[in-house]
Amino acid sequence: MMQKPQRIPNETTVAVLMGGWSAERKVSMASGEACFNALKRAGFNAIMVDVKRETISSVLLDMKPDVAFNALHGKWGEDGCASALLETLQIPYTHSGVLSSAIAMHKEKSKALFREAGIPVAESKLVDLEIAATSHPMAPPYVVKPVAEGSSVGVHIVDNTRNGPASIILEQRAIFGDQVMVEKFIPGKELTCAVMGDVALGVIDIVPNIGFYDYEAKYAPGGSRHILPAEIPNEIYRKVQRYSLMAHQALGCRGVSRSDFRYDDTVGQEPQVILLEINTQPGMTGTSLVPELAAHAGHSFEELVTWMVNDASIDR
Fold first, then answer.
1. What angle do CA 5, 7, 8 make, to 5 degrees?
2. C-alpha angle with apex 255: 261 to 62, nearest 5 degrees?
3. What single DSSP character describes residue 4?
4. pLDDT tens for residues 87-128?
């Protein structure tokens, strides 16, 4: 892992950007509070900033922080917009830059770059919301999800026993927009791996206790079990790590990212590892995966956020 310039904690003011107005505001608040507390324990002059659309620029200009710790999730905070604002204000910030954040947030556009890099991805396409609500855009089973949301917001699995999630996604138009992503359902294990700088960390096997790994399973205490290290063949473990680093590099990500996979080991078929998506602003709550992966690699939460502050820059 590349050595970064060390910022002196008690001489460094860190604005922890949290909240915002996306569908993931609640998770962002939890991430921001956890990171704020860890930064304070590490000795930084950390300040929590509940981001408001109409005041964020003026607040940051008045505060003049040395670093902005981006703990925002979802639209605006994770899609490159916040990064663009921080670039404009010339405030060093954590996580990925404008272009990589924007591409990563758009699941279909990021898949194009993953395919180009040689990383296997699931078959998918964009369709009008009304079409997905009234007919099967592809043979079931498949997954319907927003093309630009995270934290499994609005994700629905359609199997052979259903005619389509019409009433659900029509009621969630504010999340989905006019188009939805329809993706072939890949059975098997839910695996995830984080990249920290230029190093792939461990691999977690996520076992949801309630249905599939949806928003509730991710953030509710006891919603899922995390098996770390994942109990999978060594060659699959290494492949997940390799694909995670390849995805991080293909999009030009910076700082910390997390990639989610399916490992289909159906008996009688060739085992396959499929990349679902990359997260440039992974959760940092008490049940989040990145702090757990960092701890497994020997980095405490305080060491993780300190590394992220030291990694912060502009022109990312």
1. 140
2. 130
3. P
4. 999 999 999 999 999 999 999 999 999 999 999 999 999 999
State mean pLDDT over 215-228: 65
* Residue 207: strand pairing partners: 225
Does 205 score more than 90 pLDDT?
Answer: yes
Nearest to 158 by CA among 130, 182, 189: 182
133's tokens: 């609500």
Note the pLDDT tens digit of each residue in 185-201: 999 999 999 999 999 99
313: tokens are 């820059």
The dihedrals phi and psi of 98, each to the nearest 5 degrees, come to: -65, -55
Per the CB < 8 A criterion, the answer to whether 299 and 307 are in contact is yes
Assess contact for 193 and 164: CB atoms under 8 A.
no
> 158-177: per-residue pLDDT in tens?
887 766 665 678 878 878 88
Q: Six-digit token pair at 80?
A: 């490159």
307, 5 Cβ separation under 8 angstroms: no
23 Cβ partners below 8 Å, 6+ apart? 74, 75, 149, 151, 153, 154, 175
Q: How many CB atoms lie within 10 A of CB 110?
A: 22
Q: How confident is the model at residue 286 (pLDDT cuts 50, 70, 90)?
A: confident
Exposure string of 245-274, with b = 16+ CB inside 10 Å and e = fewer, is: bbbbebbebbbbbbbbbbbeeeeeeeebbb
pLDDT tens digits for range 237-256 = 999 999 999 999 999 999 99
Which residues are designated catalytic?
Answer: 24, 151, 219, 258, 260, 277, 279, 283
State the CB neighbour count (10 A cutoff) for residue 316.
22
Compute the distance between CA of residue 148 and CA of residue 76 in angstroms, rounded to an integer. 11
